[in-house]
Write the structure tokens for this entry.
Amino acid sequence: MQSDPGVSASAMSPTSEFFTMRLLGGLGNQMFQFAAGYSLSRTHHKRLVLDTAIYSKNKLRKLELENFSLPNDIEIAEVKPEAIGSRTNVFRKVLSSLGSSKMMIYKEKSHCFDCGFFDLAAPAYIKGYFQSPLYFENYRNELREILRPKAQLSSSNQSYVGAIEQSKVSISVHIRRGDYAATPDNMSAHGVLDQNYYDAAFDLMKNLYGKNINWFIFTDDPVWVKGTFQALENAQAVVGNDDSPWEDLWLMSKCDHNIIANSTFSWWGAWLNTSKGKTVIAPRHWFGREKHKKTPTFDMFPNGWITL
């Protein structure tokens, strides 16, 4: 738990001014939520609390942010009304969206950037995904330092570091199929990128950087990758690590260029890539066809990223 000595969610007084960001989802989603909350709290010179309560109920996901070097004044806590003493009634109002004279609840209005986000006054409880770099553009250099792993890579992944560093041109490719293809509902909501997207991305990268490319394919479906891209030269699969996904993300960021999936996970791998002149290719359709019609994503990608 990252906190100042002696300070916790249960110890904060009812009049303390801070922003509380609800965390949910996997590593990529948590990083977006943290980055937006960090930017908001620094803009207003307030403290930031990261609420992890959802992870005590959702066993499919877990808190991953603790693998990074978060500032000591960031509070990570499971916010529960019964755990905050004299502030119980206030938090019950906030969490049930009833409002309070001292604390308000903010819910993300859409998938696009909300310029009114930075007009929020503390204290506030914040809910949303905040999947736009516009939320943290002014703090990008700080965040690239903060979102560095605290621990060393496992020995198995250390070998990939050497292979990436020795490549004339290294390109990470993210192929996500497992949970996206698990059920018809998931397929409809997320959409699964097909071979055509990746073939077009490979061709573009080859046109830009020649044929002497080492491809590092990060995937949760190595069988599909092997059967689909067996003709791709100098390619090796990096099977996703469910126990420490931050390792895969960090390896992506160390490649010269990136081909990402419709996944916040590889979005962050590309964003954290500090290579000068990097090329990032992203899918134009981030969601399944029907959801994409209702969910615009035009400000999700930084300037210079190529969408196919």
